Amino acid sequence: MSTDSKAGSLPKGRVQWRRFALILAPAAVITATLVGLTANGAIAASISVSGQQFLVTATQLKGTGFEQFGSQISGPNGTQPVVESGIRNATLSHLCQEVKVGGISLVLHAGDGSTPVSASNLIVDASGQSGSQAVFHNITIGQDAGSLVQDPGTTGQSGGFGQEASSVEIDNLVQHTWLTTAGTFTLPGLTLGFGGSC
Length: 198
Known about the structure:
10 strands; globular
């Protein structure tokens, strides 16, 4: 009798899925947290979110090529209205991201030194956003969201309310975010671990 037919053995080329899943699980937790920061902005509209918001803070955000409009995201609890903000090129000083994983906070820090976090085609779907001060340069408010021209990797629905600016600066940024995507995201001084808060 061949070894392939013995009880408990697998034919060559087969995968033991349970063992594979156990090995993959720790990496999947970290990957799921970071995927929103590193995914391609062009596919943001087709992403189904987890149904859990996360907190993002930065002492300062600077960006060029800014667009903002109303949108919605889909998840396990149906669709959620969001404010979608797109920035073609952005830097964030003292970035912090906090998300609950099994009741414990998983906290990411980056850009705490002299080099800030940088991103291209940064797209954020948020339920709320605040800052101690915001400055917009060459801003147009009330433009058709489908006709915005700053090209940060996203655009709104034709006929919807939108606004755009050539550049933006926000101090002490706080965002309650459903989804963040970027074409590239560079995280100097990255730390990621359980415990703490933003």
